[in-house]
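Entry 14. Two folds queued back to back today. First construct below, sequence then structure tokens.
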Amino acid sequence: MPAEDLDEAMNDADLAEGQVPITALQEHFSVSFTRMIAYAAGCSIKPHETDYEGVDITVVSSTEYRGYYGPQFELQLKCTYQESLLKEDHMAWQMKKKPFEKLTREKRYIPAYLGVLLIPREQTSWLRTDEDGLFTRSRMFWESADNLRQTEPVADRHTVHLPRRNLFTGDQLLKIMKRIGDAEEGSR
């Protein structure tokens, strides 16, 4: 889950005030962000011990739909502060070949998705709390691994496009669950 845009060696500037690497904080923040959206939508999260299979968490519904009871999907999370990745109609995200191929495997039993959380550059701007509530300027864009899959060979790094209309919200999450739960053709 660490941001792939931070490949250089870590130095003191990469450590937060509590001496935790920024990439680790980004990882935890992206999981926490996803948990809050899922819980507010009435879904739950199953954590994974490792992301060996190319995913970090599984999002689960306890609702019965036309096709299935309890639909779920696996989610690979990424986190970045690079606003330049956000284009007019999509977010461009570069993935390494191996994680991309794991995520987009055709024979996945449980549908997989990619979510990229865009956060403010300064850690102190990630989250604000006051008497009115909890606020973040962060937002996550997502896409189905089925829609990311391609037939041509993938280079060492591959850029994927996450449509800006795919903003990870409670409503969007419930629509994903409904598509999976209703077993709509071609929707995973």
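Second construct, same run, same settings:
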Amino acid sequence: MNPRTERERSTWNRRSTLDDLGRALQGPALRRTREILCAGARGRTLEVAIGTGRNLRHYPPQIHLTGIDPNPEALARTRERADALGRPVHLAEGDAGRLEFPDACFDTVVSILALGSAPDRRAALAEMFRVLVPGGRLLLADRIEYARFPARLVEARREHPRRLPREVALEVGFEVGHHDRLLFGLVERMVAHRPT
């Protein structure tokens, strides 16, 4: 992992103990977004930044789920949650910007409130594109509070300013079928696919 990824990993290792508390405090709009996006998964599914496995119960039972996360503590909690739910899942420590999977090996990629912590959004979305089969679906929701004024001014001064996930997804080759915003425009939700 590169130094930026290592810094993010260290931050998320510290935050993993608060992850379930955050789930309890999460509003109905985000809970419903998780339910909707995960229910849309089909076939071989990869969840990028699976965290502590809060989405596991929303996936259809027939999918073959793989989850990656840079945080080994979070993955251990995901394993416990998966075992309690009786949900088979393959878990691996990994970097969204360097997925260690062959080309075109997943039917669905899911990323919920995770892309914002990726050190390089473009690299992460390009990797998601690469591992999807032609026609495969990307189901994504992410925070975009930085896109609103006055946060936009602060963001422009960062070394690596963030851009809207939809813009970056289009740039790397995805076709966006649906996108909207929720929570007063602070979260962008998107369904896209890799062209056939």
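Quick look at the second one. Residues 16-25 have pLDDT under 50 and may be disordered. The two ends are 31 Å apart (CA to CA).
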